[in-house]
Amino acid sequence: MKAFCLRMVSHIAFERTIIGLIIINGIVLGLETSAYMMANYGEALMMANHLILAVFIIEAMMKIIAVAPKFKLYFGSGWNLFDFSIVVLSLVPAAGEFAMIARLARLLRVMRLISTIPELRLIVETLVRSLPGMMHVIMLMGVIFYIYAVAGFHFYNEHNPQLWGSLGLSLLTLFRVVTLEDWTDVMYNAMELHYLSWMYFVSFVVMGTFVVINLFIAVVLNNLDEAKQERLAEMQKPMNKDELAKELKATQEALQRLQSSIERMPS
């Protein structure tokens, strides 16, 4: 049983089947938002949801059996814990006080697409690794926001109290500016007070948007490159005894299939 489960979960077709079911699950969740679909095909959609959940449960059980008795190989992986938690939460009854948790768990199943596709896992791992570096960029941005918010309050408080009436409103206005959402309207309104007000806004946009955002991108790209290098180093590590035996067995099976095919060929 262990060998069968290991062979199944390691097969590329099994992985692609799970990816396909995750995508189908996402489509089903989208269709459930349609009143027409629920009225006419509600039972079919619920049946599809139950079948997909059953497959996910079987997948989790097969992966656990494949590493038994070394369960740490499964539960020691953060991605496996993520998948297992979603499956467990999906078993919560979709009724009563736990209905919202059940719906959220069903929605989280779509996020399993991230844990299934290696490229998406690499991006998420890169973002997590980038958090410490991002904190310093966020601190820098916080200082810039605070200085400009206090200055904006003193400059434009009396002219436009709706946007600059307090420190909190000033921060919200600067957030609107840094997202480049109609920031020119805010600037032209301030320029009615003084024509040189454009210098305040342009300097903030340059520092807050172009410089700081590019720092975020630089931190992420640097960690992405490091993550790729680490993954490449892991792929180049020498195989242990179990992995070598597995590869030899797979090669022998392939050679046997090739020999059988040659023997069946007409002479």
Topology:
Elements: H1 2-10, H2 12-31, H3 35-67, H4 72-75, H5 78-90, H6 99-108, H7 112-116, H8 118-156, H9 161-164, H10 167-178, H11 183-191, H12 197-235, H13 241-264
What would you say about this model in short?
With 267 residues, the protein is mostly helical.
Low-confidence stretches: none
Residue fraction in strands: under 5%
Please summarize the sheet with the most strands.
Answer: none
Total DSSP helices? 13
CATH topology of the largest domain: Four Helix Bundle (Hemerythrin (Met), subunit A)
Q: Care to count the β-strands?
A: 0
Structural class, by secondary structure, is mainly alpha
What is the overall shape? elongated
Distance between the termini: 40 Å
Explain this structure to me?
The model has no long low-confidence stretch (mean pLDDT 81). The chain has helices at residues 2-10, 12-31, 35-67, 72-75, 78-90, 99-108, 112-116, 118-156, 161-164, 167-178, 183-191, 197-235, 241-264. It has 267 residues and is mainly α. It is built from 13 helices and no strands.
Short descriptors:
2 domains; 83% helix; Helix Hairpins; elongated; 267 residues
